[in-house]
Amino acid sequence: MRELPAGLEAQLAAGVTTLCRCWLLERTDAVKLGFTDHDRDLAFDGATFEALAGINSAEVTQSFGLAIDTTEIAGALQSEKIAESDLAAGLYDNAKLTLFLVDWSEVANRAVIFAGSVGEVSRGRVHFQAEMRGLAHALNQERGRVYSRGCDADLGDARCGIDLDLPEFKGTGTITAATSNRSFAASGLAAFVDGWFKSGKLVWATGANAGAAIEVKFHSNSGTTVRFELWETMPFDIEVGDTFTVTAGCDKALATCLDRFDNVANFRGFPYIPGNDALTSYANTGDVNDGSSRFG
Questions:
Q1: Above 50 in pLDDT, residue 157?
Q2: Which residues are registered as beta bridge partners of 134?
Q3: 69: helix, coil or strand?
């Protein structure tokens, strides 16, 4: 059972209340923003909650157990704090969110009625809508080691050990032609073989998408033209002259780790783990079934 401050409990029990809602957002870049549906700014816990921000929320759905609590907030892109470019850049994706019920006549009388993070965000020309996910959502995320044939380290992290800043693994390109906001040709990368950057990370250095990072879906080098296709469409137009850095990709297979990176000593997968074919197979006359290794 949720315990409420005595003052807030008294407000709720009274016939007339002075209640409002306040939202505290902490973006992925550590910027904290406060909003309220009250008609004047409020301040508490070291944060100012901006009034008249055009923010509204749906009913909060909460349940017992480990089911994920959800709600939605929607608002107009009229607050100086909420810019379409920030939404497009993903700064609000997975941002922390706390929703308070507040007595605006005495802000000490308040209670947290929802805590979680921002999920999917959609936006139009003048408004946005965001899904709010409760704290139980974190329990759906993968934790710890995974037993699989592929490596579970990220290329370039401490467990992998590859230095992606080395020139053989990192390049700088300049857009020469763009067919869409996810497909383009580039110069400056002719020295890298076909497919070298597939599954690698591309980070925009200049242009409208500067600072955004995205995974490479396809990389080709025909000898005369270097082309890229990204897994997701960039929020803003890719223009000729935009520059980016891109690092080598890895499909997490043992052969790639050995042949491309000579790093098999740090391979974090289990390439010889039996698959479904082994689980469903049966013994045949002539098979070696003495318990020795299947791989010699």
A1: yes
A2: 116
A3: coil
